[in-house]
């Protein structure tokens, strides 16, 4: 794939996702408390009807036949209710308790009276006051599909069904290599050197897309020599499914990423995408002795371009590796006119209004700037050869907000 013919932005995302999907790791069984942030490898199905038995929604009386009713017992949550066999009888019942077989109505305690003889009277409400078996789900029904990101709500549903463990996809392991002798890792920029802003932030984005990134997996700045680049990439690949690099994606005198990939026998999946900012970026697949491919994502050195490359190539790749679906981009209304970028997709940093339906571009959006990113909630996506007029509906690429959130 030639750098002279960049891949369409949407095609680049699709290629990255498909590569990840084909390389998704084997499933593993994990306990419910440890499943948060993982991905369902199999559909979550109801193991029994939910609820599994008729369940009272009130504190009151379970009655049979016409009133008044003679109390013959009590049933609490967790107990087995004996049947009500005789008309004119009732049992006291608690919320969540099993409704006795033979009961034909439930009467709220606050809407009942008892006479001197202890008989219960009252008018049950017309709407039944209990949950019937299968009201929420029937046994064997698919509740959530494979590929669902597991969060506390999913864990709660699984526990309600009776699961103790879930079949999940492994978390992709990621590493980061920061290239550039001009970078400072501490202090303020000056005297020809700039502060590295990607080393501290990229791991956070990777975690939000479901990857694990240990502190030891972040290395840099790597010396600007081919030997140092090659050694750093080889070391990173020993413990990672994905290695991200920053800088060195062009062909300048100190850009050694392409020669490094050549020596590793890498296959380019995307050798730059037609998007601005974000040019140039790359995604390569590197063969490994264990038969599983490893991936390297080359992010540009300019900070905003690097983050756009991460959202373009790395986010879909990680979704595929985890067996998650390729995310669809919602449509929002452009609050102002937004220009296009010729034959390139234009990603425009923007903030949503309170309704979440309209987006306004933010300022400070140069390739080397991060101020705009820090004030944005995502990007308006202006397709090649188009522009947006205020009021137009355009795709919106949201920033991930929490670890493990779907891309």
Automatic annotation (TrEMBL):
EC number: 2.10.1.1
SUPFAM superfamilies named among the record's database cross-references: MoeA C-terminal domain-like, MoeA N-terminal region -like, Molybdenum cofactor biosynthesis proteins
CDD domains: MoeA
Reactions the enzyme catalyzes: adenylyl-molybdopterin + molybdate = Mo-molybdopterin + AMP + H(+)
Cellular component, GO annotation: cytosol
Pathway the protein acts in: Cofactor biosynthesis; molybdopterin biosynthesis
Residue ranges the record marks as coiled coil: none
GO MF term set: metal ion binding; molybdopterin molybdotransferase activity
Gene3D superfamilies in alphabetical order: MoaB/Mog-like domain (3.40.980.10), MoeA, C-terminal, domain IV (2.40.340.10), Molybdopterin biosynthesis moea protein, domain 2 (3.90.105.10), Molybdopterin biosynthesis moea protein, domain 3 (2.170.190.11)
SMART domains xrefs: MoCF_biosynth
Residue stretches making up the MoaB/Mog domain: 175-320
Cofactor(s) named in the record: Mg(2+)
GO BP: any one term: Mo-molybdopterin cofactor biosynthetic process
Keyword terms, alphabetized: Magnesium, Metal-binding, Molybdenum, Molybdenum cofactor biosynthesis, Transferase
Function: Catalyzes the insertion of molybdate into adenylated molybdopterin with the concomitant release of AMP.
PANTHER family from the UniProt entry: GEPHYRIN, MOLYBDOPTERIN BIOSYNTHESIS PROTEIN
Family, as annotated: Belongs to the MoeA family.
Protein name from the UniProt record: Molybdopterin molybdenumtransferase
């Amino acid at each position: 794939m030639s750098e002279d013919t960049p891949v369409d932005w949407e095609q680049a995302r699709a290629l990255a996702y498909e590569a990840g999907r084909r390389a998704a790791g084997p499933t593993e069984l994990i306990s419910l408390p440890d499943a948060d942030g993982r991905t369902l490898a199999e559909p979550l199905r109801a193991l029994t009807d939910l609820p599994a038995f008729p369940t009272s929604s009130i504190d009151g009386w379970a009655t049979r036949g016409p009133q008044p009713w003679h109390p013959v017992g009590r049933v609490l949550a967790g107990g087995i209710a004996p049947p009500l066999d005789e008309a004119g009888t009732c049992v006291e019942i608690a919320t969540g308790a099993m409704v006795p077989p033979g009961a034909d109505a439930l009467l709220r305690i606050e809407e009942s009276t008892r006479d001197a003889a202890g008989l219960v009277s009252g008018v049950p409400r017309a709407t039944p006051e209990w949950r019937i078996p299968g009201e929420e789900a029937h046994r064997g029904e698919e509740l959530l599909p494979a590929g669902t990101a597991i969060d506390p709500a999913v864990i709660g549903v699984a526990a309600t069904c009776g699961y103790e463990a879930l079949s999940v996809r492994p978390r992709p392991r990621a590493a980061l290599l920061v290239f550039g002798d001009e970078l400072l890792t501490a202090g303020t920029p000056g005297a020809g050197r700039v502060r590295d802003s990607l080393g501290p932030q990229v791991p956070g984005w990777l975690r939000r897309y479901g990857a694990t990134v240990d502190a030891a997996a972040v290395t840099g700045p790597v010396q600007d020599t081919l030997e140092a680049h090659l050694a750093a990439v080889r070391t990173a690949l020993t413990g990672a499914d994905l290695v991200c690099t920053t800088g060195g994606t062009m062909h300048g005198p100190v850009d050694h990423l392409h020669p490094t990939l050549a020596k590793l026998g890498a296959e380019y999946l995307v050798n730059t995408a037609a998007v601005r900012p974000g040019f140039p970026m790359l995604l390569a697949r590197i063969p490994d002795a264990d038969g599983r491919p490893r991936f390297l994502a080359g992010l540009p050195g300019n900070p905003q371009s690097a983050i756009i490359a991460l959202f373009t190539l790395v986010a879909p790749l990680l979704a595929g590796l985890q067996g998650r679906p390729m995310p669809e981009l919602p449509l929002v209304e452009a609050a102002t006119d937004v220009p296009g970028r010729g034959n390139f997709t234009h990603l425009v940093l923007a903030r949503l209004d309170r309704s979440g339906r309209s987006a306004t571009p933010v300022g400070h959006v140069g390739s080397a700037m991060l101020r705009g990113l820090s004030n944005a909630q995502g990007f308006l996506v202006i397709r090649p050869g188009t522009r947006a007029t205020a009021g137009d509906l355009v795709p919106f690429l949201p920033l991930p907000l929490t670890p493990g959130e779907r891309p």
